Amino acid sequence: MKTCILCFCLLVACAALPATARAGAIQCANLIYGGTHTSRCFSDEFLSAVQKETTISTERRFKTVKLASDELFKYPFTILTGEKDFHFTPEERKNLKRYLESGGFLLVSAGCSNQEFDRAFRREIKSVFEDRALEPLPDDHTIYHTVHQVAGLQTKGHGYGANEKIALEGLNIGGKTVLVYSKHGLNDTAHTEGCCCCGGSEISNALEVNVNIFVYALLY
Predict the structure, then answer these.
(1) Can you state the angle between helices 206-219 and 45-53, rounded to 10 degrees?
(2) pTM here?
(3) What is the dotted CATH code of the domain comprising 5-219?
(4) How many CB atoms are closer than 10 A to CB 192?
(5) 210 with 186: CB under 8 angstroms?
(6) What ranges do the domains of the chain cover?
(7) Structure confidence by residue, pLDDT tens digits, 185-194
């Protein structure tokens, strides 16, 4: 029987969490993928917001983790973002598939609504899950109603895809959404330093959306 990653982490939190983390606090991993790619402008403010607005204890800074490493399985929630083309390595494809099928959760965002990243991620996730596809999340999906009532995704209204209907997409396994993807930036650059979404149609209510996604990943 496969063990739920979240349950495992909670049961062995004191032993499994890095020494710098608070015992029992849930950590979020910022993935290194495609060799050296990683997020550089994704705000961790949603982790502090979860701590304030729910009973979930969080470690308020991301932990950098390689997608191909065994360390990945210590983290129930992970993020993967970028602003350029990339390719997963064979080891990364294998690890990601096993991670998501074992109860892990991945949030993916095209930084600054980058078209190259969007095309690359769709290509790569198809190579990982040939028998599954990303699908738009319906308006009544639980993700929109966990902590905040998100009636719609608000954007800056310019850049790639700004004239399309804005919707999150998801990948489902066993009746649960285990991956959420946004082709528009969920980076929440308003809460980061030295970052912007120049020319991209960033989601302006990203903080509330990310809080909801994180809580959904842990509790549903």
Answers:
(1) 60
(2) 0.86
(3) 3.40.50.12140
(4) 15
(5) yes
(6) 5-219
(7) 898 877 777 6
